[in-house]
Input
Amino acid sequence: MLFTSGGATTQALLPLNFAAAGQPVDYVVTGHWGKTALKAGQAVCRRQRRRQQRGRWLRSIPARASWNLSPDAAYVHITANETIHGVEFRELPDTGSVPLIADFSSSIASEPLDIRRFGAIYAGAQKNLGPVGIGVLIVDRQLLERAGQPRADIFDFRSQLKAESMSTPRRAGTGTCSA
Ligand SMILES: Cc1ncc(COP(=O)(O)O)c(C=O)c1O
Output
């Protein structure tokens, strides 16, 4: 379990940590926050052609069989409860061997949760847990060990775990890099 700086939106770091370069990530958009996560993800992971889904998305969740997911996705992202649109997953979708990651910002701690069903869950603390400016990420160790993509140490969940969610120590001296 990691305590992360910034709110739920900071989990734009998920694809950097868990998706290999060029690997697709599937986002199930059932409302505003899912769309925000998708947009953030598209800055990092491969942009796919827009998929047209039939059904009453944003008002209900169409049957899993009608979803168009990639078998080689790094993970599938859902928003457990869409705070604005009011769409909530009462049953978890079967994603096979692809880990399921869920944004629980507006439903965490409201009822018992079987955490083993997820690769990771996260939440901004300000809604259901307490203070603004931090978030919580509960992540399966196997997922945590993925190489992901080049990123600063402070954005690397493995380093954050080692540092027990505190900022990583800095070494004195000089250094150079070229972009
Ligand atoms: C489901 C959900 N996800 C993400 C967010 C964004 O959270 P934050 O303001 O902590 O970045 C919210 C905020 O209302 C939310 O309800």
Remarks:
- The chain has one domain: 2-162.
- The helical segments are 14-18, 32-42, 125-128, 141-144, 157-162.
- Strands lie at 2-5, 26-27, 76-79, 100-103, 120-124, 134-139.
